[in-house]
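Handout for the seminar on molecular recognition.
Each group receives one record of this type.
Step one: identify the two inputs.
Step two: read the structure output and locate the region that could contact zinc ion.
Step three: write two sentences on what you found, then compare them with the reference statements printed after the record.
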Amino acid sequence: MNCIFCAIVNGDIPSKKVYEDEYCYAFLDIAPQAPVHCLVVPREHIGSADEITPDNACIVAEIFKAIPGIAKSLGLEGGYRIVSNIGEDGCQSVKHLHFHILGGKKLSENMA
Ligand code: 5GP
Ligand code: ZN
């Protein structure tokens, strides 16, 4: 499968690693939209949050268990935002589930 985030997880494409464990890999976004912009992806290919099922939901739970520590390591004491874009209307450009962690400033109240 030709998936850029699978290639990043496998180390075939370089990335700035923030965190990794058995279930997920976190790295800095190549085109940051906030002072801190990190992506957290499952090691296993899941197309989007719309493809979360009872069988793979435990991976998502593991990602969310890791996020507070990732946020702390990024210095996001003042808070942050987690975003996951889905499909055409959600402007998802990479078809491998990922959670954007955005912060490092007071974010816009406008989410859409
Ligand atoms: P989406 O638009 O699918 O929600 O988010 C995809 C994100 O992946 C974008 O913020 C984009 O900047 C980031 N991205 C795309 N290609 C690469 C890459 O090769 N390396 C890194 N670090 N980020 C990437
Ligand atoms: Zn993938």
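Reference statements: The pocket of guanosine-5'-monophosphate (ligand 1) is lined by residues 4, 13, 15, 27-31, 39, 85, 91-94 (CB under 6 Å). The mean pLDDT is 98.
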